[in-house]
Write the structure tokens for this entry.
Amino acid sequence: MNMVSYEPFVTEDGRTIGDAVMELRNITLRFGGVVAIKDISFDIREGEIRAIIGPNGAGKSSMLNVISGFYTPSEGEVWFEGRKRPQMRPYQVARQGIARTFQNIALFSGMSTLDNIMTGRITRMKSSLAAQALWWGKAEREESEHREAVEKIIDFLEIQHIRKTPVGRLPYGLQKRVELGRALAAEPRLLLLDEPMAGMNVEEKEDMSRFILDVNDEFGTTIVLIEHDMGVVMDLSDRVVVMDYGKKIGDGPPDEVRRNQDVIDAYLGVSHD
Amino acid sequence: MTNFLYAVEVMINGLMAGVLYALVALGFVLIFKASGIFNYAQGVLALFAALTLVGLQEGQIPFAHLINATLGTELHHFGWHMPALLAILLTVGVMILLAIAIERFILKHLVNQEPIILFMATIGLAYFLEGLGDIMWGADIKTLDVGLPQGGSMWIEEKTAVLGGDGFYGFFIDRLDIVAALVAAVLVISLTVFSQYSKQGRALRAVADDHQAALSVGISLRFIWVLVWSIAGFVALVAGIMWGAKSGVQFSLSLIALKALPVLMLGGFTSIPGAIVGGLIIGVGEKLFEFTIGPMIGGATENWFAYVLALVFLVFRPQGLFGEKIIERV
């Protein structure tokens, strides 16, 4: 346990965020000859909203896939809660308390909203198959505990009216919300959101922003998010990593990043004072 | 009047036969739903399960021929006769081990491959298992006796004899078929409860729906595959017991898988109720067709009727009765 300690970091709105939950050290990711991520290091601290931005094809989603274990980095180390993470399968990473959503919604479209969010509790369910078969009462009690937790999330996300609806029939914005609910149901240490607002209209974006801020505020969940909408990123995030062509070209609070000449050249390309 | 009663009797017998078709089809549906694999080996799985059951029960030494041929020994039997229940439990264990081996040696290496590749792999598996069954337990026809009742039910015969007056002897319904129907009902109900209300059942449905999303909530695909193949192996064992008790354990048992195909086309590949209803329709349909039209065209219609019915269904309702509608976005 050599938890790396940092100077307390004070965000722009005056909150203090804590030690690093996760550290990415010199991550490189290659697919054959293509280098998707090139020697990137940054950290994610307890309780913050950490954004990853960059133009299309910059390697943002690849980065998120490395964190969630869907990709194994070719080089570099992932440190989680003060320990170096060995090579892991995605489901093992999920069981460590890292939940995620996907850029192109990945829900169980045949199941209801309730059942979808219920699957998010799987990592928290203890009773085994045999126990469920032999000791029905205990399994039932556990089930109802999880149901309660799920109902709270449903209330929180204001989706009571679609509890029983198969999610395949829901409009896009609501599906995104259900997917967020499923990730929240795991009560994650780290929540990864891959473009949570992609393809939404202004009103839906505002709703989603509010939910993300509330999650961070009320549950103290550490969030990593990828987003294209610069306005949203600047409003939501405490610190921002900027990627371009697989390299890190900026890292810091939104205001600082906004002033970074490299970032302006590569990504914003506008507003030279 | 008597003619009508005969038709009813034929229908009931058809229903019973249909239950057995449905049992085999159920194994297909389970694996197809969870992994998108059409498991060609399902019929051979039933054969292998039945062979193992008989072998264990009779105390046969596995690979006896092979051992004798290479070492010049004269081994045949352990010399025990195992109680049926114990033998069944042990066979369930063997089917679980087989599921683990299938995951370990086949599925694990074919993750993210095209469905056709996986289908080909199951064809290979089918022939491998067929050979393995032969080498392990010998190729002779065996009788399977786990104590299931056989022969016509006298009770039903007596109760129905009064219906048709003098010339009518009452319905002949095999007691084995009745047991099979009951077993199938229990199996379907417990599978449904399991998949709707248990943690593993929910995980199973999740994997069937979306692999990536399932991984992201912490479900191990490998565990689920082992689980699904174990359940399919168990269903195969049940089907193997019923068919084996009816007509002996022999190679032709694996061909019942072919009868499951039209059942699946009718019921839809992804629906458990579909497999049941499909099985019943085929069972009743082919018996009634044989009874009514058969005599006019020279009989033996049971061999092909199911396939023709399935073809007709393919034209009008390609997703089957209960299957998910296939909608392709353009």
